[in-house]
Amino acid sequence: MELGRAGPAGLLLLLPLLLAAQAAPERDPYRVLGVGRSSSQADIKKAYKRLARQWHPDKNKDPGAEDKFIQISKAYEILSNEEKRANFDRYGDAGESQGYSQHQQRQFHHFHEGFYFDESFFHFPFNSERRDTSDEKYLLHFSHYINEIVPDSFKKPYLIKITSDWCFSCIHIEPVWKEVAQELEALGVGIGVVHAGYERRLAHHLGAHSTPSILGLINGKITFFHSAVVRENLRQFVENLLPGNLVEKITDKNYIRFLSNWKKENKPHVLLFDHMPVVPLLYKLTAFAYRDYLSFGYVYVGLRGTEELSSQYNINVYTPTLMIFKEHIDKPADVAQARDMKKQLIDDFLSQNKFLMAARLTNQRLFQELCPVKKSHRQRKHCVVLLTGEGDKFADAYEAFLTFAVANTKDTLRFAHIYNDRQPEFADALLMDEEKYRGKSAVVILERRNNAGKIAYKTLEEAWQGSNEDNFILLDLLDQLRTDPGLLSSETVLADLNDELAPMFLIRWFYSTLDYILDCWDSLFHSNWREMMPLLSLLFSALFILFGTVIVQAFSDSSDTRDSPASEKKDTTAKTEKNDTSFNKESNSRVPKKGFVEVTELTDINYNSNLVRLRPGHMNVVLILSNSTKTALLQKFALEVYTFTGSSSLHFSFLSLDKHREWLEYLLEFAQDAAPIPNQYDKHFLERDYTGYVLALNGHKKYFCLFKPHRSGDEGGTLGACEDYDSSLHTEARGKSSCSPGSRSLKNKLHKLSFWMERLLEGSLQRFYIPSWPALD
Predict the structure, then answer these.
(1) pLDDT tens-digit profile of 74-118?
(2) Contacts for 575 with CB less than 8 Å, ≥ 6 apart
(3) What is the DSSP string of 219-246?
(4) What is the Cα–Cα distance from 350 to 337, expressed in whole angstroms?
(5) In angstroms, rounded to a whole number, what is the distance separating the alpha carbons of residues 451 and 266?
(6) Residue whose C-alpha is closest to residue 109's, from 96, 118, 122
């Protein structure tokens, strides 16, 4: 009665609820999998496996099995993800469009939490399940994209659309996309569609952060489309993805040069004659797909300057014509004509003419394609290979072999030739370095037995001269081979062929660098801020560190050169004492591994292992001494560095000044600092006294830190002798008279070396870099 009183208006309001109630079971993942809302992940997985086996399209021939299997997969995807499952339990939707339009979905579902309104009632094609199903056959998944689409992009470009649910712009571009996708797919362009809601991982991998997005994929490289979505722009975008040198424009002036390059490039050459002024996109796509096998040229027959070319080959200017040229450029090896050139026609025509009549084996891939491995008796293919050389001396033998190949072309025979000097391992394995073949050509009939290089073969007993007798002998062997496969009595294993046409390393490196620069340039001007944030963050961080280091170093240098004010002396002394206390604590905590200091002499025998080839992060602390000061300085050195022997990255050595003075003086030339080496001379030899100097040598990074002997009497204290000391440590030394080397005791030369070692471990010492370590003579 109440329903009757409501009238037509009430029916209209209740009709969406009735339709929603009918459609809800199809959209409820719990009902699809037949599990309860409190089911565990193990129960959900078990139910999914059972239903997936039951409704898999390969096993279930029911017409609705595929749709049912898709529903099961989507339901499991929602319930196996805790976030999606929570969204469905809360809002009645899994939030598949999160990041794109989830806010709009939640507003719609929050209208009343107790009801669900199916948008199909209002004819709004927001949900991908209700949309045009033309995109379904193009849907991509992450594993499918990585394992199949990316490798296939080296044969044809792909145009990929990123879409999602509740995307108004996606609906707007669908008619244009559908038209262009059908048109380009017929030309040989791969089409893909990525649903950002279901394939977030793939969308993120592609760098798509908004929908709709359109991108191109070629040679594994992604390029985004940034223009208006119209047919002309999309076609031009795909054409721009292709390399610019795929097809060469051919006229009367350059056709002979183009066709004569077959020997250099080791490829047949293809000419397309057409009355279109620009190269058709279909022909460019074909040239990209077959670029490893064929070279392509285009002749615009309506252009002045192509009359001789059209006349020589008797071209019908009103019908597109394809011509294949191989070893002979005076006449084509094959011709195809059609008013409407279709992709299938061109593919069939080119796939039958991918190789020259007697191609030169220049790499392993070509050898494997020309001479495939025997899979069965019916698929037997024999290769007849001419092993010859370069130059006019071998020209007659090659021409005779080519003539024989043209006259005896069969599906079970392939002819090829190889240069002995470019593939010496191949030639030696077949000819056994026999004297009768030296400096001559030879013919071998072979059959590949497996991919590991094993072959069965037979070599003609005499060298190949190209005479009629040689032709009869080879023809007789091939006839016998059809009935007696055992004629190939010899077996061997061939190594892989050298790649003769591979570009040099510098050229590959140059092109890789160029591609990287172009990618960065494109990203800089076309990527959004979200994509650019990691790069900008890295750039500004590097600049901040660089300028911060420069500023800190500048202030540090200026403070070192200034004398400390008298008012700060007490504070500085207090800090020094504090540092001494903390250092003693750290030294006590650094427990030496041994009860003694291991100090080795640095000689030319252990020079490489102890310095030049020292492991990264390790340093060798070297004491400079003479024969007369050796005992006293080593004892003092051991006392000063004993607390640092617990560090595994430090090694201790001493260097004899009497033996290696030149080596030391060479190193000290690089120590150009504000505190120059003092002019102190030995009484007897009138040479500078370097005893007591200590060098911390980093062999991996090629730098050293320098400790100069302590001078108790000079103004400025140790600052003058070793720039690595803080001036505040030596204020008490001021005012004292300078001491000569004779009055300076040996035990004071290494005074405060332990403080210097502490700063060495802190990394606060000045470093002197050298280009390379000199030889220790």
Answers:
(1) 888 888 888 888 888 876 665 544 433 444 444 444 433 333 334
(2) 728
(3) TTEEEE--S---HHHHHHHHHHHS-TTS
(4) 13
(5) 24
(6) 118
